[in-house]
Amino acid sequence: MNRNFILIILLLFATFAYAECVGGYNDTFYARVLDAKLRPVSNALVSATFDRGATFGPQYLTTPNRTTDNLGQTQFTLINQGTNSRTLDCKIKLVGQVDAVSNTTTIEANVHGDIVDIFLSVYPVLITVKDQFGVPLPNAVVTFDNTTLKADDSGSMLMFNTIGKHNYLVNYLDGKEAGTFEIAGDERKDIVIPYHSIGIVVMDEYGKPLDADISIFNKIYQTKNGQFAYAKSFGDQISYKVDYNGSEIQGNIIPESKPNVTVVYDLNAPVFQNIKDITTDNRPQLIIQVVDLGQYASGVEAKSVRVNYRIQKGEEQVWTSATTFTSGKNTFTTQFPVIEPNSIVQFHIEAQDKAGNIALLDGSFSTMKAKNQSNQTPQNDTNTQPNPKNDQGIPLLYIIIGAIIVIFIIYMLFRNRQAQT
Hints:
The protein has two helices and 29 strands. It is mostly beta strands.
């Protein structure tokens, strides 16, 4: 008698369930994801696939993924509008997923409890992001395999994954830390992102401080007495841009190895110190000395030194480029072609430093010959000495010596005569 009663109840229940599905249904429930130890899994993804009961179009509809809360739950409301054109499929397929781990649970519409459980073989991992002194870094972003979460105010977040090795990437401001972490069960992982103090000094080529705008960390700061300092900077490489009166210089700071940088603005053009012309065999040369002054000057750009010239005559002459090359430290030599004597050569010199400052100089020189010109040097490079002149008189010394000899002879003759008498 009891068996017959139970059988009747089951038949009535099945009939009721079938009747609930035939005309469509409206089913609301919670899907809950549990880990390997039957604990709630937060931030898991859950989707539902069900017969939408439409006469036309696809029979099945899959919902977008929904994320579980701290209780491991997410709510679904599924509506089947019903159809008389075919038999409805009353099964609902739920898929829970954490990274690459997933599992499926199938239920009948409106024939289940308020909470439907999905089981995954994952374990909790508590990650805490800190600086090198152990201070938590709130709102750090952690990507663990394919799951990305943000740390709370204590720098911590709870993640779930399977046993084995996993990759992680942590971002905090401009700081990053990447690595591999192995899960063997329930785990705790502290990830350290260090910070460094950095500084930027802005000055001219003489070392004078310059007040400039510095763009860094997505903000704009102004130097004080040419200096900028930042106590906590995160990241292996920090980009900056310095703006002084519209002139911009960009660079990178390596906080760990080179936390302080100096930005020099070379504001002045090079200076021409000495210009000397030399003419040999009617071929003039200019010896040019140009210096970029200042202890921190960028220096003269050798390739930038150019000389143009023209010969001054009655008609206006076209400017021509002359060959110029480096001949010493801060010294350049310009060679001209053969130029007729007694010519006036006008020249225009341009030099630039490595910062782009340009120096210009206009001048001229003459190829006129000197009036008292020395002997021309023959082609064998020997200088022929002049022959002595033959019209020179008797030297005075010879005259005096001769007079003395004559007087001595007369004296001796006179003395001999006295001795005879």
